[in-house]
Every structure is written in structure tokens, then in C-alpha cells.
Automatic annotation (TrEMBL):
Residue spans of biased composition, Basic and acidic residues class: 230-241
Ranges in coiled-coil conformation: none
Keywords per UniProt: Cytoplasm, Hydrolase, Protease, Serine protease
Gene3D superfamilies noted in UniProt: 2-enoyl-CoA Hydratase, Chain A, domain 1
NCBIfam families: Clp_rel_HeadMat
Stored PANTHER family: ATP-DEPENDENT CLP PROTEASE PROTEOLYTIC SUBUNIT
Family: Belongs to the peptidase S14 family.
GO molecular function: ATP-dependent peptidase activity; ATPase binding; serine-type endopeptidase activity
Organism: Bradyrhizobium sediminis
Region (Disordered): 218-241
Protein name: ATP-dependent Clp protease proteolytic subunit
Keyword hit for Glycoprotein: no
Length: 241
């Protein structure tokens, strides 16, 4: 499979794995392609689907299309938030029958946003669409967490970042597991566009360092088999699955 923001593989039995890394949507990846991969898993008889997430979010309509396809998929769904589930990625996470977060993972919820140029009618129509998206997102969180919708709206209004402990306490996740140290190279989600991202005022380099400290050091194995840890200044990328 070519490099993309998601990859799938069946584990040779009833357990399949889905990985969502980087942005949701874009890059030429379509919902139709996603549907085709899920159809292959269905044909293989997958009964447990593990969904690993490390993403800063992305396109809301595409995200809900993915959410709905996953919700209809006839398998137990286990979501693992391996690093960050922000924005639309956190909505997709709500599809899990069980949501697991390592102790150093984070989740972020906020209001959908965007911009449009055009006539008054077009701008008003876009505003109405954003409000509808917002209520759909609120509904997904409320169904999973059982929190009051007013509380969820207030959290979204101020862009709320949740630690694993906070996510479990509020119902956004079910349990905490030990931190991960990944042998594969990892992608650092771009949090610069979020208003309350950790240490935003110190700029991208500081954010990169701050998240590096919050997450486990990502490790890679060299061709000779010797393992080393990446430094804060190195770029992290996922290799092809």
C-alpha cells in the first residue's frame, strides 16, 4: 500500500488493525478507498478491529464518513490513542467499544472552523453548516461520555486538551495503559493551528520539544540492528506499513 494517512492490515485471523496517522482526508485518499479496505476486512472475517490513532484531525465530513463506516462494521472495535487524538480524530475515537490511552497520550476537542469567501448568502450558509457540524460532534461525544451537552459545548468552546487520566475520568476513554516506546518512526502531529496547544507561545520548535517530553521517545532500529532514540530536533515520519 502506498504511503497515506491510514493503513490497514488483517492479522491473518479474526483480528484486524487500522492505523490513522497524520491528517484525516487530503493527500488523494478517498472515503471510497477506505470503504474498499474495510470491505476486504469483512471478507476476511475480521471480528475484532483495533484502531490506532495519532492524528491532529482533519476534514469533518470525511471524518464522519469514516466514523459511520466504522460504526456499521460488524466487529468489536478497540481504539488505542497512541499519541494524540485531536479535533476530528477524537470524534472518530468515540466509535470504540473500548478506548485505551497510554498514560502519556492526549486528546483534544474543539469547535469546527473554516473560512469562505462569497456572497452574504454563501457565507451564511457556511455558518449554518459549521453549526450543524458542531452539533453532530457534540452528539458523538455525548453519546459516548454521557456528559451533558452544555458541558461538552463549553469544553469545545475553549478548546480543551485532556490527559489520559482526565479523558478516562470524563468518559472519553475507558482505561489507561503503560506508555509506549515505538520502534517505528513516528509522525509528530501539527498542533500549531490550535489556539490552546501546549506551549503555543513558544513556537513550533518549543511545541515539538514539549510534545517530545510528553510522549515517549520514539525509537528506530538501524539496518545493523542497533537501536537508538530520536532527538527532539529530528523529524519523525511513519514508514509505509
Amino acid at each position: 500500500m502506498s504511503k497515506s494517512w491510514f493503513s490497514m492490515r488483517a492479522s491473518g485471523g479474526p483480528v484486524g488493525e487500522l492505523q490513522i496517522f497524520s491528517d484525516i482526508g487530503g493527500g488523494g485518499v478517498t472515503s471510497e478507498a477506505f470503504h474498499a479496505e474495510l470491505s476486504r476486512m469483512r471478507a476476511r472475517g475480521v471480528k475484532t478491529l483495533i484502531i490506532s490513532i495519532n492524528s491532529d484531525g482533519g476534514d469533518v465530513p470525511i471524518g464522519f464518513h469514516i466514523f459511520n463506516m466504522l460504526e456499521r462494521f460488524p466487529a468489536k472495535k478497540i481504539v488505542r490513542i497512541d499519541g494524540l487524538a485531536a479535533s476530528m480524530a477524537s470524534v472518530i475515537a468515540m466509535v470504540g467499544d473500548e478506548i485505551i490511552m497510554p498514560s502519556n497520550a492526549m486528546m483534544m476537542i474543539h469547535n469546527p472552523w473554516g473560512g469562505v469567501a462569497g456572497s452574504v448568502e454563501q457565507i451564511e450558509s457556511f455558518g449554518t453548516a459549521l453549526k450543524t457540524m458542531r452539533e453532530n460532534i457534540v452528539g458523538a461525544y455525548a453519546k459516548r461520555t454521557r456528559l451533558a451537552v452544555d458541558q461538552i459545548r463549553a469544553m469545545m468552546d475553549k478548546e480543551t486538551w485532556l490527559s489520559a487520566e482526565e479523558a478516562v475520568r470524563l468518559g472519553f476513554a475507558d482505561r489507561i495503559e503503560a506508555p509506549l516506546k515505538m520502534a517505528a518512526m513516528a509522525s509528530l502531529p501539527d498542533v500549531s493551528r490550535f489556539k490552546n496547544a501546549p506551549t503555543r507561545a513558544r513556537g513550533i520548535a518549543a511545541i515539538r520539544a514539549d510534545i517530545f517530553d510528553k510522549f515517549n521517545r520514539k525509537s528506530e532500529t538501524s539496518p545493523g540492528g542497533q537501536r537508538r532514540y530520536l532527538t527532539k530536533d529530528e523529524r519523525w515520519e511513519y514508514g509505509d506499513s
